[in-house]
């Protein structure tokens, strides 16, 4: 019997729902529900993919097969992910009916027969195959986690992100013509929210390749310090600063926020960094930034959030770790609802003055990054590894859908360290930064 119909039947049996896409197997056979002819196809290139799933069922087994190129998609990746996502999310949130007892045993035997004899292939080299060493979110472990994600080649990131080298969501409007314009608008929005002025001191926590500190020094005349744990990021950021002749205004350090103690700063930005902090350390993170800021100074915390589970969650249960992202993308990254983040900032002493949701903006940004990657796949694979290029394509495309469907969000939180007299230093109507100065 042809392989593809057997795979479709097994998948439907295990999921307890119809498989909404076509599947092509290594023997050339193809099967799928009516109405999917001519659409995108999930290609299972090898029995090795099934052996991975047999020994590691679920997200990690599928991820390993995808990264190794044993499972692929012909056609629109978004269409396939969009069709499969509800099944994945429903199983995670509510649980789908699955076979039990004899039916389950029969399905496993059928799957094992299709997979063939042999041990599971080793995980792709792009996977974090051992814990990073040391307690969760210790200095040593965080450095290794950051290196895994960011030290994969500056040229690769330039290809994906574009010339701006900004690795966080851009800000779009109806007049925005390009990703570069949208990223410049985001950088300027942050500077206006922080009310940056000539001669002020700005600390950028998790500065990446230096785009924000460069923008702030160039256009607002500040003295900026950027900190990162990535040596590759720091090296390129320093070259960019030297090329613009801004060495006297901008400094880049390879340094953890817990090692920074040269305050007070007039303003602090933290853009796309707090997701790495984690539940165990978030109070420490918030308190450290509060201590580094002068009274009357502002903090702009730009952070991805997840939607809370129905009924609410407390403490560390409010944080979420995705298995695929933890193994291949952001080791030890954790997402929490925005309300949890606001509460912890307030507990540290900050007064939260504004929260702006940018969820749809991140979806638009991710689609641009995926387009860059898909248009130059061969070059991207050559700049890093084929497996890592596949990781980034899947992670960014799936994340775009998650933002579009409100599974996750991203928010800019503006907070202030009030003076002893209770002054925030903000205008009575805080949204005056919407119109560029």
TrEMBL record:
SMART domains registered for this protein in UniProt: PKS_MT
List the PANTHER family hit by this protein, alphabetically.
CYCLOPROPANE-FATTY-ACYL-PHOSPHOLIPID SYNTHASE (PTHR43667)
CDD domains, alphabetized: AdoMet_MTases
Instruction: Output the lineage of the source organism.
Output: Bacteria, Bacillati, Actinomycetota, Actinomycetes, Kitasatosporales
Q: Which GO terms describe its molecular function?
A: methyltransferase activity
Q: Where is the Polyketide synthase-like methyltransferase domain?
A: 156-420
Protein name as annotated:
Class I SAM-dependent methyltransferase
Annotated region (Disordered), positions in chain: 116-136
Q: Which enzyme type, at the first EC level?
A: transferase
The catalytic activity of this protein is classed by the Enzyme Commission as: 2.1.1.-
């Amino acid at each position: 019997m042809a392989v593809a119909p057997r795979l479709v039947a097994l998948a439907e049996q295990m999921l307890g729902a119809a498989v909404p896409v076509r599947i092509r197997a290594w023997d050339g056979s193809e099967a799928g529900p009516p109405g999917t002819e001519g659409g995108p196809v999930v290609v299972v290139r090898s029995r090795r993919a099934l052996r991975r799933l047999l020994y590691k069922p679920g997200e990690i087994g599928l991820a390993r097969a995808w990264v190794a190129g044993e499972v692929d998609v012909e056609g629109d990746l978004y269409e396939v992910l969009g069709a499969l996502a509800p099944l994945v999310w429903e199983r995670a949130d509510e649980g789908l009916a699955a076979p039990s007892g004899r039916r389950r045993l029969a399905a496993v035997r059928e799957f094992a027969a299709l997979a063939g004899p042999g041990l599971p292939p080793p995980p792709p080299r792009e996977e974090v195959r051992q814990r990073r060493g040391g307690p969760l979110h210790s200095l040593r472990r965080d450095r290794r986690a950051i290196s895994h994600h960011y030290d994969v080649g500056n040229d690769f990131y330039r290809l994906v992100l574009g010339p701006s080298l900004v690795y966080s969501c851009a800000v779009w409007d109806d007049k925005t013509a390009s990703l570069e314009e949208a990223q410049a608008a985001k950088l300027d929005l942050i500077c206006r929210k922080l009310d940056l002025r000539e001669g002020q001191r700005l600390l950028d926590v998790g500065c990446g390749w230096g785009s924000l500190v460069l923008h702030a020094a160039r256009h607002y005349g500040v003295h900026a310090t950027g900190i990162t744990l990535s040596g590759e990021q720091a090296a390129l950021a320093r070259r960019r600063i030297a090329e613009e002749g801004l060495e006297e205004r901008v400094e880049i350090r390879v340094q953890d926020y817990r090692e920074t103690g040269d305050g007070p700063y007039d303003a602090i930005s933290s853009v796309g960094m707090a997701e790495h902090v984690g539940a165990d350390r978030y109070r420490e993170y918030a308190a450290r930034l509060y201590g580094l800021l002068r009274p009357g100074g502002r903090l702009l915390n730009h952070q991805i959030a997840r939607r809370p589970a129905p009924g609410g969650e407390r403490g560390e249960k409010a944080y979420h770790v995705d298995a695929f992202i933890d193994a291949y993308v952001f080791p030890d990254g954790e997402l929490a609802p925005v309300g949890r983040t606001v509460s912890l900032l307030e507990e540290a002493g900050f007064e939260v003055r504004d929260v702006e949701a940018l969820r749809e903006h991140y979806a638009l940004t991710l689609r641009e990054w995926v387009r860059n990657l898909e248009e130059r796949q061969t070059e991207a694979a050559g700049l890093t590894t084929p497996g890592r290029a596949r990781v980034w394509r899947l992670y960014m495309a799936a994340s775009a859908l998650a933002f579009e469907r409100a599974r996750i969000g991203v928010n800019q939180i503006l907070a202030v360290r009030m003076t002893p007299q209770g002054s925030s230093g903000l205008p009575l109507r805080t949204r005056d930064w919407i119109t560029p100065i």
